[in-house]
UniProtKB/TrEMBL annotation:
Alphabetical UniProt keywords: NAD, Oxidoreductase
One MF term in the entry's GO annotations: oxidoreductase activity
Descriptive protein name: NAD(P)-dependent oxidoreductase
Cleavable signal peptide: none
InterPro entries linked to this entry: Epimerase_deHydtase, NAD(P)-bd_dom_sf
Family assignment from sequence similarity: Belongs to the NAD(P)-dependent epimerase/dehydratase family.
NAD-dependent epimerase/dehydratase domain span: 10-167
Listed transmembrane segments: none
Amino acid sequence: MGSALFGKLVLTGARGNLGNELRAPLSKMARELVTTDILEAPAELLPNETYVQADLGDYDAVEPLLEGAEMVIHFGAIVDERPFEDLHLPNYVGAYNIWQAAWRHGARRVVYASSIHAVGMAENARGIDTDEPHRPDTFYGLAKCFAEDMGRMYWEKRGLEAVCLRILSCTPEPQNVRALGSWLSYRDMVQLVTRAIETPTVGFTVAYGVSNNDRAPVSNHKVGFLGYKPQDNAEDWAEALFAKAVAPDPQDVAQTRVGGPFAAVPLGESGIEAIKRMTEGKK
């Protein structure tokens, strides 16, 4: 991959864990990188990076950022289950604001950090692919369904391409037994986003953000044209993770659905806290 393949790229959610991992590789792909988040700017910026503090729920703040952009990589959101009212502006309205501003300014593509929670109630044992119908497990997952459907509509009605990446569990290392299937390494996440940007034409595409795990409950076989070839495998951590796992329970939807603990929590209650309990070997 050569440098400066694109003119201007915009990255939202740049202060989050995944957004921060994307800043450097994206800067090498563009002459100009605009990064944004609701938080203050990072301590150091890359040579071609401009940071703008902005609230995704405020269209007037978002719209100018997209002027002249070829693509927007939309990773900004609250990344946990919350009451609908808490998610409404950042996750629902924020997604609309990005797509609308991208279209108004003639951008070519939105690369969107969707989530496995858009289909979180699907069973692990079914081996779902990218045609799986929406089955959200939370208000958080429902927001991902909304944005995916909007992405398809903006492609079919307005010609704005979209790649929606249903990310599973993206962490430096797999954290629990569920992650033996769901883990996405940072290295593979960067590769997936890069492929979503570089692929010449995508129309509307859904792909799963998952590493090359032996136990992956999802399949990307229908979107091979993206050229995504994950390099990492959570199986390397299997022995250690099984040693601290909770007891198997076929009635526990946290263990049997692709959304994991998000599939089991009451609507509006944190899924991240439930994942922490699973990681600690607690029910």
